Amino acid sequence: MAWIQIRLNATNETAETISDELMELGAASVTFVDAQDTPVFEPLPGETRLWGDTDVIGLFDAVTDMAPVIDALKAMPELAQQMTYKVEALEDKDWEREWMDNFHPMQFGRRLWICPSWREAPEPDAVNVMLDPGLAFGTGTHPTTALCLTWLDGLELGDKSVVDFGCGSGILAIAAIKLGAQSVVGLDIDPQALTASADNAQRNGVEEKLTVYLPKNQPDDLQADVVVANILAGPLRELAPVISALVKPGGQLALSGLLVEQAEELRAIYGQWFDLNPTAIEGDWCRLDGQKRID
């Protein structure tokens, strides 16, 4: 099926209202993208997950007359003074097949490979995670995931317990198990993520070592030797006491999903409990990691 896409520049304050208007005008879907063309995942109902200036992208059936849509948008108070937009036709193609064709095996650190489940592992004797993301985020292609995978590869995880906070596809949880972790708990607010994590764990033969929970169902006394949280800066800020409490004294923590300019604020917050290493940077993104102090 062919589509027409309209892309409008917005801000944190106006993006949600513009999104609602696009849906009222018949958009099949609306996606938020940050000003640096980095995907920001579709928010849950009632949730805004944005930072900085934002583009709002509405997807319409190819037969849609876009002139009334544009007129309605121009009439919005949020866009009345200045409306920057672009309308373009999207080629009718098998997007899922194209994505699959372009998802290749990738190496992280010294030992670890992430391999699409439909391809052969290039190094059969390496630590290979066979991945099918399904409906959940996490393939290793995003710099924040890559930063976390490289960090895990550099740890000695033998006999360690791990919590993957915001487990998505389970990529970090399964990598930790393959790298020697004794047990891993995956937490996510999205039930589809828990399903994807469990499916990928079974695909890799490590399902007995992975337990997944919605946060409301996690054990009250949950703690681990290693905690990794690859989410967004806002939740990392708001949930700092919760995430920090998951780490055993003397344990290791890694935080990602951060833009470089957000690192210092998060460093100050988590520095209350952790001795943090120098910030690891990849492009516009970064990772904070360190050891929890023993009181």
UniProtKB/TrEMBL annotation:
Q: What is its EC number?
A: 2.1.1.-
Cellular compartments per GO CC: cytosol; ribosome
GO terms of molecular function = protein-lysine N-methyltransferase activity
Q: Where in the cell is it found?
A: Cytoplasm
List the Pfam families hit by this protein, alphabetically.
PrmA
> Where, by residue number, does S-adenosyl-L-methionine bind?
145, 166, 188, 230
Q: Which reaction does it catalyse?
A: L-lysyl-[protein] + 3 S-adenosyl-L-methionine = N(6),N(6),N(6)-trimethyl-L-lysyl-[protein] + 3 S-adenosyl-L-homocysteine + 3 H(+)
Q: Does the keyword S-adenosyl-L-methionine apply?
A: yes
Q: Which UniProt keywords apply?
A: Cytoplasm, Methyltransferase, Ribonucleoprotein, Ribosomal protein, S-adenosyl-L-methionine, Transferase
**Principal subcellular localization:** cytoplasm
Q: Give the protein's biological function.
A: Methylates ribosomal protein L11.
The protein's name: Ribosomal protein L11 methyltransferase
What is the originating organism of this protein? Answer: Ferrimonas balearica (strain DSM 9799 / CCM 4581 / KCTC 23876 / PAT)
